[in-house]
From TrEMBL:
A Pfam family it matches: Amidase
Transmembrane intervals: none
Catalyses which reaction(s): L-glutamyl-tRNA(Gln) + L-glutamine + ATP + H2O = L-glutaminyl-tRNA(Gln) + L-glutamate + ADP + phosphate + H(+)
MF terms (GO), sorted A to Z: ATP binding; glutaminyl-tRNA synthase (glutamine-hydrolyzing) activity; hydrolase activity, acting on carbon-nitrogen (but not peptide) bonds, in linear amides
Protein name: Glutamyl-tRNA(Gln) amidotransferase subunit A, chloroplastic/mitochondrial
Note: This protein may be expected to contain an N-terminal transit peptide but none has been predicted.
Source organism per UniProt: Escallonia rubra
Localization (cell): Mitochondrion; Plastid, Chloroplast stroma
Active site: 193, 268, 292
Similarity remark: Belongs to the amidase family. GatA subfamily.
Amino acid sequence: MDYGLTGDSSPLISIYRRIPDVAMPPGRGFSFRDLYSYLSSEPEYGVSKNVEDKTVKLEDDLLTDPHSFPPTEMLSSVQNPRILLLQCRRHHHRHRLPLPPKPYLQTTISSSLHTSPPPASQIGTLRKSLLSREKTAVELAETYLTRIRLTEPQLKSFLHLSDNVLRDAGEIDRKIERNEEVGPLAGVFVGVKDNICTADMPSTAGSRILEGYRPPFDATAVRKLRESGAIVVGKTNLDEFGMGSTTEGSAYQVTANPWDLSRVPGGSSGGSAAAVSARQCVVSLGSDTGGSVRQPASFCGVVGLKPTYGRVSRFGLVAYASSLDVIGCFGSSVADTGTLLYAISGHDKLDATSSKREVPNFASAFITQDFSESKPLKGLRVGVIRETIDSGVDPEVISSIHGAASHLEELGCIVTEVSLPSFSLGLPAYYILASSESSSNLSRYDGIRYGNQAVSDELASLYGDSRAQGFGSEVKMRILMGTYALSAGYYDAYYKRAQQVRTLVQKSFKAALDENDILISPAAPSVAYKIGEKKNDPLAMYAGDIMTVNVNLAGLPALVLPCGFVEGGSAGLPVGFQMIGAAFDEEKLLKVGHIFEQTLQGCSFVPPLVADGFAC
Ligand code: GLN
């Protein structure tokens, strides 16, 4: 399956072709000035150059090329959206899912690590020991800081560590001593992705262009965390501006996967996922534009939640693609993830796209639930998305997803297959829309308002050089692709069509969720890659996002949690599965996730480096 990214009919290949060598997979650095002069010196590209309004008008005959975007089958479905919707409905008739024989879970990895009890809420445990005065917040802080000191040289999850951890912990201890009320997250150590603004630490978004930038404010999500008593431990590593799937795209460092230090933690929120997996902090914030919370959660064996678009304020989140961006949550248990979501959710007058919907106390609804009844999820309708357990997906991953589906069935769910025929169209549409929005959002980095400035005595070259020196090659490539897709001559062919596909994706999810309570799929087509494996093959890297991008196009909530292992590393590599719900149905996802996690036998998702006492 090429998911529309390879082969002659791929829209991205088509864009790449028009932006010649300079923008092909990074191999050598290039500047915008290089690009413009290259294009203007090539008569065959017929460039008319207007750097200031960022319009690149390329006149060639590719629009009439039969291989150009959109691919023929996409064109026909976009022209006749009803056809695809009808196909969706036709595919929705229920039939039993062929489940593999028991035992469903991967049992090839035998390790004592995988036999411990289900994950307990770390937030709950910590709160108990604080309020019972068994431990002080300072003592707890010292434990986490020691862990960070021992593991950070190998993992490199953090770009900055806070100087205020012990001061903040001391403040909580004083409040407890005086019997004053402490917030629901008192003493909880939180990692924050470095594209989320914090007033007391730099916020670089993993980019040289923002090196040393200190915002004068906290993002709304961070402000709410601090008001709940949480302690922000540090800022976590990410692919520059959130563009990437491995965290290798950070301008500063490569983060390692705690399960196998030679592998990536996923991305772009790889630092936040690795930090929770290695217990360097209790929970963390990430951002998810096309899967950047869910895919690294899967690679690192932790829980990752992408909330409904609008559930959490984006104020203070460095914009990548504003119609897709959401702040999301990582935890080592579903209960912790739900507790974190509750703390950061809600309307914010500083973000007009934040929702005024009431915010339920997500975790309190299920945290005390009794699982002794044999079918706690009786009657819940679960649809396995057929296109996600198809060719192109690692067979071991598919078998873990079958295992998860079987476990849900044992819990009382009615599991069937559903088809989302527009599924593979989501990937090229996502990359066109995300690149287009980023080309506009990133125009604010001019070397004057924020971050780094190149040395120059002339304004135009100050802009050009600051951007050429400040942005990495993947970011430049996205800006070029986006500028191209939005340019006057190609807007209809790329951006408009991609928006039409987006509507189609939304409608097909709606049809599937009218018939099912939740949909499930793998979180990624494979487990964690080796560091360097995909770095020079951006299209292969983009293809790895196939499981997650559609959910962002539709603005829906999705929860990823570990469900099994495949062979790799010293103790196996975790596999995550994704549960997708209707808009604002996070409560249901978290409840199902909690019951799933607490009843899953024989799996403990604590990486060897933690279990071995940080001897990494
Ligand atoms: N890997 C995707 C991208 O590079 C998703 C990134 C994200 O969710 N921030 O666009």
